[in-house]
Amino acid sequence: MATSAIGVIFANLHEDTVPELVRKRTIASIPYGGRYRIIDFALSNMINSGITTVGLMTSNNYRSLIDHIGSGKDWDLARKDGGLILLPPFSEKSDKLYTTRLEALNSVTGFLHRRKEEYVVLTDCDGVMKLDIADIIKQHKKTNADITLVTHYGKVGNRADFLLVSAGEDGRVNELKLSPHVEAGTKADIFINMLIINRQFLLNLVEDSITHGYTSFESDILIKQLNALKIYRYNFQGYYAGIDSMAAYYKHNMELLEKEVRDELFGDRDIYTKVKDSAPSKYGADAKVKNSLISDGCEIEGVVENSILFRGVKVSKGAVVRNSILMQDNIIGQNTSLDCVITDKNVVISDKKTLGGCATLPYYIPKGTRL
Q1: How distant, in Å, are the alpha carbons of 36, 50, 130, 222, 283 from that of 46?
Q2: For residue 194, which of 243, 226, 160, 148 has the smallest C-alpha distance?
Q3: What pLDDT is stored for residue 108 in this prediction?
Q4: Considering only 99-103, 137-141, 162-166, 309-313, which range has the smallest mean pLDDT?
Q5: How far apart (Å, rounded) are the C-alpha atoms in residues 198 and 140?
Q6: Fewer CB within 10 Å, N or C, the chain?
Q7: Residue 205, number of CB atoms within 10 A of its CB
Q8: Three-class SS string for 122-169?
Q9: Residue 158: its pLDDT value, please?
Q10: In this structure, what are the phi and psi dihedrals at residue 321, rounded to the nearest 5 degrees?
């Protein structure tokens, strides 16, 4: 049954955390886990929760994202009413690109006015998780909240603009700290850039904020108006992977080699993605594969251990790939050795090369590189 809510996904926010991966794409379209893009998780969470209207906000480098999502049919979002709606990078009120979340919301007030759903789910594409948004909306109604922030108790990462959340026993937020000075690895309740808000209340809030010259949703609305607004938190206790650095991207991809993580992230509810009719992977007589995720269309003649290979990767005879992430259509030459390497799409590495990094600083090779 459809939920009385619409989704709004921000495809470009937080791209400064992984600049290598977003040179030619949005953070939403970063490949993940062998066959997915990061946006697949946000879209799947919404459609699995009964949300059938999703606005996708982009500002730049969105060609690969458009190519991936198409009409939205792979997520059952190709609909006559609602479905997947691409929101242009330019404001309906200005020809300038928005630079903040608040400016972005102000640019799509026309879209929000035209909808009739009661609630809006705002989410970014810097996290990988599987959750039931309908359950969050249920809590939002029960507490009669103005805003419900989704939080996760975990280690503080490397991002400079995270928001720490403190709440009372009833769940009402009593303190918010933007970018506090805490050591990486410290555990705390962190806002994971998803919130629930009444649609008409959001429109009023954005209009009032713009007339007062506010620019930041976090600082000028959440923090400054904390006492005036009824802000509650929803503490998500499942698996959450925050992509806030190249090291985090590598770490969380590698976590998918653990059965417990795969079961939690992909069990029960499906995670949908663009379907390609690739041939099954082919393994040569001398191929050795251990503890790895191998996608369709790969050709393995060498050794692959503790690695993730996307579609169409070719590992030649004598090549050894360990602890690495190889994106789509890579070619690894004969007798080449890779360890802790991330190769972007369409990379060709010739014979007898030795490349390596480490878990905290994986060696990254940009898209289309030939070595």
Answers
A1: 16, 6, 10, 24, 37
A2: 148
A3: 87
A4: 99-103
A5: 9
A6: N
A7: 21
A8: EEECCEEECCCHHHHHHHHHHHCCCEEEEEEEEECCCCCCCEEEEECC
A9: 67
A10: -120, 115
pLDDT in tens, 160-183: 678 899 999 999 999 999 877 777
- Give Cα 291 distance to the centre of its chain: 25
**CB within 8 A of 279, min separation 6: which ones?**
296, 297
Give 18's Cβ-side CA count (13 Å radius): 30
- Residue 359 near residue 247 (C-beta atoms within 8 A): yes
Give CA 205 to chain center in angstroms: 26
What are 82's two structure tokens? 């609602």
pLDDT higher than threshold 60 for residue 92: no
**How far is 27 from 18, CA to CA, in rounded Å?**
8
Nearest to residue 313, comparing CAs of 297, 302, 336? 297
Average pLDDT of span 14-38 = 91
What is the tens place of the pLDDT at every residue in 250-272?
999 999 999 999 999 998 788 99
Tokens of 14: 């937080």
Q: Name the residue type at position 239.
A: Y
Residue 134 has pLDDT above 70, yes or no: yes
The closest alpha carbon to 174, from 122, 230, 237, belongs to 230
Instruction: Round to whole Å and give the CA distance between 299 and 140.
Output: 49
At residue 21 the predicted structure's pLDDT band, cuts being 50, 70 and 90, is very high
Q: Which residue type occupies 28?
A: A
Is the pLDDT higher at 260 or at 59? 260
Q: Are 176 and 220 in contact (CB under 8 A)?
A: no
Compute the distance between CA of residue 22 and CA of residue 60 in angstroms, rounded to an integer.
10
- Would you give the distance in Å from CA 319 to the centre of its chain? 32
**CB of 298 closer than 8 Å to CB of 314:** yes
- Distance of alpha carbon 8 from alpha carbon 43, whole angstroms: 10
Please answer whether residues 224 and 209 qualify as being in contact, where contact means their C-beta atoms are separated by less than 8 angstroms.
no
At residue 1 the predicted structure's pLDDT band, cuts being 50, 70 and 90, is very low
Q: Which pLDDT does position 178 carry in this prediction? A: 85
Residues 6+ apart with CB under 8 A from 80: none
Tokens of 84: 């997947």
Number of C-alpha atoms within 13 angstroms, CB side, residue 80?
0
